[in-house]
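Entry 14. Two folds queued back to back today. First construct below, sequence then C-alpha cells.
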Amino acid sequence: MFKNSFLKTSFILTLILILQTNSASAQINTEKYRKYNSDETGFLFNLATTFSLKAGNTEYSAYTGSGRVDYNGKKFDAFIVGNFEFKNTGETKVENDGFVHLRGITHVAKRTTWEIFLQKQYDEFIDLNSRDLAGTGIKYRLLESVSKKDSTNTVDINVSTGLMYETENYNLDGGTIDQFHWRNTSFVSIDWLIKSKLNLTSVIYYQPAFDDFNDFRIAAEGGLEFAIAKSVNFIFAITYRYNNKPVTNVKIFDLSIQNGIRIEIK
C-alpha cells in the first residue's frame, strides 16, 4: 500500500516539474537518458534540483531542476524527461533555458527500434522563445561487445536516422520571427560500461534542413558517470553545439562543461 502511494506521488511530482519547464538549447542529447535502468520493467522515476546563493560582495543565485519518468515494457518503452536552468548576478540574468522531451520506443527486432518523439524547449540567450518538434526514426545497434574477462565491461555503438518537423520562434529587432523546417535527424553514439558503476558515453548529432542543406546543426557530447553511494551517482558532461545558420546575431557555437549528482528513486 505504501509503495503504490509513494510511486503515485513521485509520478505526480515528476510530471509537475517537467511540465513547468517550457524546454533548452538547440539540440537535446536524449541518448544519455535512454539506457537508464532499462533492465527493470514498469515505471521508474528520477528527480534532481539545486539552488545556489551568494550575497554581500558577490551577488549570485542559480536554480536548476530535472526530472524524468520511464516506462519499460517487453515490447514498448517510453520516457518523458525535462530540465531547466536559471542563473543571475544581481539583477542581470546570465542563463535561462529549459526543455521537455517525450519519446516512445517500439522494439521491432533484436537490434532495431522504431521511435517517435515530441520536444519543446526555449533558450533566452540565443533569442529562442520556443522550439517545438515532432519526429520519428529508426535506431540500429551496430555493435554490442562483451568482454570475455569481465562480463560487466561492455561496448555499444548505435546509429540512427529519422525525420522531424520543427517550428521555432525567435526574438529579432524588437519583434519575433518564425521558422518552419523539415529536418533529417541522425546520430552515432558510443556507450562503454567499464564496470557496473562506471560508464563513459559519447554521441554526435547531425540535423540538416531538407530545403537548405547549408542550414544544419551539429551537437557532440561526452559524459562520465560513476557511483559514489547507493542510488547516488556522480556525473560529468562536456557539450559542443554548432548552428551553421543562426537566425539572430548570436555566436554559431556553444560549449558547456557540467558536473553534479544523479539520485535514483525506485
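Second construct, same run, same settings:
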Amino acid sequence: MLSFRTDGPVLDPREFTGELAKAKPAVANTNELTTDTLAIGDKMPDGTVYAGISPETNKPMYATPADAPLLMGFDKAKEYAAELDAHGHRDWRVPTKAELNVLFNNRVAIGGFSSIGSRPAGWYWSSSQDDTWSAWDQRFSDGARCGLWKDGHCSLRCVR
C-alpha cells in the first residue's frame, strides 16, 4: 500500500524545502567531469545531482533531484527504484545504509529532502536490512537511524 506525502508534492527541491537557495547552473561539459571538478550538489547535464562518493563502490554517486512522489514500504521502494526510468538512466536503486548517510551529510547541498522529523515523511529508506522483518532508515532532521518494519512507510531518494 502506498500513502501520499503529508508535506505536499515534491516538484522543485527548492520549493519542497521552503528554501529558495541560489540554483547552481548545470555542469556544461561532461568530458571534463572528475571528482576534483565536481562539487556536491552540482546538477549534471542529465538532470541528476552529484551526491558525493559512494562508500560502497568508492565511485561518484548521483541522486534524483527530488524524492519519489509517494511514501512507501520497503519492498515497494526497491521495486520503484528498479523500475525508475528517469534522466536517461534505468540503473536507479535504493541507497545502502552508508550511502544514505552520505545523502544525509550532504543534504543541504543536494537539496529537496524532507527534514520535518516526523514519521514517515522525514525518514528515508536504505536498502540495508536490519533483520528479516526490518530495514534501516534515517531521519533527515537530525540523522537518527533505526530499523523499521518493512511494511512501514518512508520517503525515498534514488541513487545510481
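Quick look at the second one. The beta strands are 3-4, 49-53, 60-63, 70-71, 123-129, 134-139, 145-149. The longest helix spans residues 74-83.
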